[in-house]
C-alpha cells in the first residue's frame, strides 16, 4: 500500500491549479492534498498556448503563465506547492481508479488512497485517425492541447517562415492558430466542413466579418469539405493535404483543431456519465459522494437555464474548481453553483466576450466593421439569454454579463437592435435589486493587466472572473419594450 491523502486531484491543468489555491485559502493542512498530473510541469493557464506562446518576438514562456495568473492571483510555481505542503506528482499518469475502495494506481505503480477525489482530467484533442485519416504523428502535423504540443508547433513555425500552412478545422484552435501563423509570416489556408468559422457560437454575420478580415490578411478559406489524406516525402514529412472535393493543398505544416473528447475513461462504469462528461450536482459532486469533477470533464447543472451542460472554457474551469473545493471544505456554507457561462477569444486585434446561452432568435447591433464595437443578443421565450460583444471596454463587458444574468424581458426585437449596447446599460442602471454583489472595477483592471503579460498584446480579455451579480431576477421585471413606448 502506498500513500494516503485526504484530498487527491487527478489532472494538473487549469482547474487543478485554481482548486489548489482555493484549498490553501480554506485552510488545507500540510500533507493533506496531492495533485497527480501527466504533464511534466505545474498547472498553467492553457489559453496562453494559442496566443502569447506563439508570438514571433518575446513569446510568453513559463513560469509567467502558471495558474493562477489569469485571475490576477498568485503565480503558483512548483515552489509555491512545496511551500504550501501540497504534493505535486508531475509526469505521472493515473492508470486506474477504484471509486468503491477510494484508491487509485499511478503510472509508477503506486497505490494512493484518498478521502475525497477531484477529477480534473480535462480533455484530449480529437485525432484525424478517428475520422479515418492517417499521418497525425508526422513531424510537421501539429495539434494544440498541452505544452508539449505548443513547443512542437512553435518549433515547426520557426523552421517554416514564409511557408504554407493548412489549418484543419475552423473552431477556436483553427481561428486562433491561423492568426498566430499569419503573424509569423506563414501563408494560411483553412479547411472547414461548414459554411462559416466557429459555427458552434458565431452567427453567419459575425463569422463573415472575421473571415473577411482574415482574407484581407491573406488567409484562404476552403469550406464545405474535409481532408481525406496527406502526401508525404521520403522523410515521412507531410508535403500536401488532399481534400474530399479533389483539391490538393501544398503544406509545409499542418495544424489540426477538430474538437476534443473529455478524459472520462478512468471512471466509465463507475460514475454516471452525461453529455460526454462526469455528471455532477450543483456542488460538483458526482454519483459517488466522495468524488467531485471540475472543468472540461464535468457536466453540471446550469441553474440559469435549468439544464445540464459541459463547457470547454477556462472561466468555467476556474469557477467550478473553486466551488468544488468550497463544497468539500465548507459544506454548510456552500450553496449551489450558480454559473453564467462566459466564453472569450482573441485573434489579431479582435477581442470578444460572450455571456449566457446562444439559443433562440438573434438580433445584431453596432457597427459591423473592424475596429468598431458590435455584438448580438440571443432572445428565447421573450427573455434575453445571451450576449456577444466585440471590441468592448472592461465596463461594457461587465455590463453585458450583468444584464444577461438578469434575463430581462424583451418584447420588441427591432427596438433591441436599434438600442444595441444601450439596452444592456439601461437594464443594469435600472436594476432595483438590493443584494447585488459586483466585481470591483479595480479588480478587473488588475486582472486585465496581468493577462496582458501572458497574452500580449493587451486587450480586454475576460473582464469578469469572480462573482458577477447575485441578483434576484424574478424580483425585477424589466418590461423594456413597453417602457420605451410609454
Ligand atoms: P485541462 O486544463 O486540459 O487539464 C487537464 C489535465 O489533466 C492535463 O494536465 C492532463 O495532462 C491531465 N490528465 C488527464 N488525464 C490524466 C490522468 N489519467 N492522469 C494524470 N493526469 C491526467 N478557454 C477560454 O475560455 N478562452 C481561451 O482563450 C482559451 N484558449 C485555449 C487555448 C488552447 C490552446 C486550449 C487547448 C484551450 C483553450 N481554452 C480557452 C480552453 C481552456 O483552456 C480549458 O477549458 C481549460 O484548460 C479546462 O481546464 P481543465 O483543468 O478542465 O482541463
Ligand atoms: P472546436 O469544437 O471549437 O472546433 C472544431 C472545428 O473542427 C469545428 O469547426 C468543426 O466543424 C471542425 N471539424 C470537426 N470535425 C472535422 C473534420 N473531420 N475535419 C475538419 N474539420 C472538422 O474545437 P477546437 O477548435 O479543436 O478547440 C479545442 C478545444 O479547445 C475546445 O474545447 C475549445 O473550446 C478549446 N479552446 C477554446 C478557446 C477559447 O475559448 N478562446 C481557444 C482555443 C481552444
Automatic annotation (TrEMBL):
Domain Monodehydroascorbate reductase 3-like C-terminal: start-end pairs: 340-424
Cofactor section: FAD
SUPFAM superfamilies associated with the record: FAD/NAD(P)-binding domain, FAD/NAD-linked reductases, dimerisation (C-terminal) domain
Keywords annotated in UniProt: FAD, Flavoprotein, Membrane, NAD, Oxidoreductase, Redox-active center, Transmembrane, Transmembrane helix
FAD/NAD(P)-binding domain boundaries: 7-321
GO terms of molecular function: monodehydroascorbate reductase (NADH) activity
Regions crossing the membrane: 460-480
GO cellular component: cytoplasm
Assigned EC number: 1.6.5.4
InterPro entries hit by this protein: FAD-oxidoreductase/Apoptosis, FAD/NAD-bd_sf, FAD/NAD-binding_dom, FAD/NAD-linked_Rdtase_dimer_sf, MDHAR3-like_C
PANTHER family found in the cross-reference section: APOPTOSIS-INDUCING FACTOR 1 (PTHR43557), GENOME ASSEMBLY, CHROMOSOME: A02 (PTHR43557:SF14)
Family: Belongs to the FAD-dependent oxidoreductase family.
The name this protein goes by in its record: monodehydroascorbate reductase (NADH)
Recorded name of the encoding gene: LOC108810462
Amino acid at each position: 500500500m502506498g500513500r494516503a491523502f485526504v484530498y487527491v486531484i487527478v489532472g494538473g491543468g487549469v482547474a487543478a491549479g485554481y482548486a489548489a489555491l482555493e484549498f490553501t485559502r480554506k485552510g488545507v493542512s500540510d500533507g493533506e492534498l496531492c495533485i497527480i498530473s501527466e504533464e511534466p510541469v505545474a498547472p498553467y493557464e492553457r489559453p496562453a498556448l494559442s496566443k502569447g506562446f506563439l508570438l514571433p518576438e518575446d513569446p510568453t514562456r513559463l513560469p509567467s503563465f502558471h495558474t493562477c495568473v489569469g485571475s490576477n492571483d498568485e503565480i503558483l510555481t512548483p515552489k509555491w506547492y512545496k511551500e504550501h505542503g501540497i504534493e505535486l506528482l508531475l509526469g505521472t499518469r493515473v492508470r486506474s481508479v477504484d471509486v468503491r475502495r477510494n484508491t487509485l494506481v499511478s503510472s509508477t505503480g503506486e497505490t494512493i488512497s484518498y478521502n475525497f477525489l477531484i477529477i480534473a482530467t480535462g480533455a484530449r484533442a480529437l485525432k484525424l485517425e478517428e475520422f479515418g485519416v492517417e499521418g497525425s504523428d508526422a513531424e510537421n502535423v501539429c495539434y494544440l492541447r498541452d505544452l508539449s504540443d505548443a513547443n512542437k508547433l512553435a518549433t515547426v513555425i520557426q523552421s517554416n517562415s514564409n511557408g504554407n500552412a493548412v489549418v484543419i478545422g475552423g473552431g477556436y484552435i483553427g481561428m486562433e492558430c491561423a492568426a498566430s501563423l499569419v503573424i509569423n509570416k506563414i501563408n494560411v489556408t483553412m479547411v472547414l466542413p461548414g459554411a462559416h468559422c466557429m459555427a458552434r457560437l458565431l452567427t453567419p454575420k459575425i463569422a463573415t466579418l472575421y473571415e473577411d478580415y482574415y482574407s484581407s490578411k491573406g488567409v484562404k478559406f476552403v469550406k464545405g469539405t474535409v481532408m481525406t489524406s496527406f502526401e508525404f516525402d521520403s522523410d515521412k514529412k507531410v508535403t500536401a493535404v488532399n481534400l474530399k472535393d479533389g483539391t490538393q493543398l501544398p503544406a509545409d505544416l499542418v495544424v489540426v483543431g477538430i474538437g476534443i473528447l473529455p478524459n472520462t475513461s478512468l471512471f466509465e462504469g463507475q460514475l454516471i456519465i452525461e453529455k460526454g462528461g462526469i455528471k455532477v450536482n450543483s456542488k460538483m459532486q458526482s454519483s459517488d459522494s466522495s468524488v467531485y469533477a471540475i472543468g472540461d470533464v464535468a457536466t453540471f447543472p446550469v441553474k440559469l437555464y435549468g439544464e445540464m451542460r459541459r463547457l470547454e472554457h477556462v472561466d468555467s474551469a476556474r469557477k467550478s474548481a473553486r466551488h468544488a473545493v468550497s463544497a468539500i471544505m465548507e459544506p454548510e456554507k456552500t450553496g449551489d453553483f450558480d454559473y453564467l457561462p462566459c466564453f472569450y477569444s482573441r485573434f489579431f486585434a479582435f477581442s470578444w466576450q460572450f455571456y449566457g446561452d446562444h439559443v433562440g432568435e438573434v438580433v445584431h447591433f453596432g457597427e459591423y466593421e473592424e475596429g468598431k464595437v458590435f455584438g448580438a443578443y440571443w432572445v428565447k421565450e421573450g427573455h434575453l439569454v445571451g450576449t456577444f460583444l466585440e471590441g468592448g471596454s472592461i465596463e461594457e463587458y461587465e455590463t453585458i454579463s450583468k444584464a444577461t444574468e438578469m434575463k430581462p424581458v424583451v418584447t420588441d426585437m427591432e427596438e433591441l437592435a436599434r438600442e444595441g449596447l444601450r439596452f444592456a446599460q439601461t437594464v443594469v442602471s435600472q436594476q432595483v435589486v438590493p443584494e447585488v454583489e459586483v466585481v470591483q472595477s479595480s479588480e478587473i483592471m488588475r486582472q486585465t493587466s496581468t493577462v496582458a503579460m501572458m497574452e500580449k498584446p493587451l486587450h480586454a480579455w475576460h473582464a469578469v472572473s469572480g462573482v458577477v451579480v447575485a441578483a434576484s431576477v424574478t424580483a425585477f421585471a424589466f418590461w423594456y419594450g413597453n417602457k420605451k413606448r410609454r
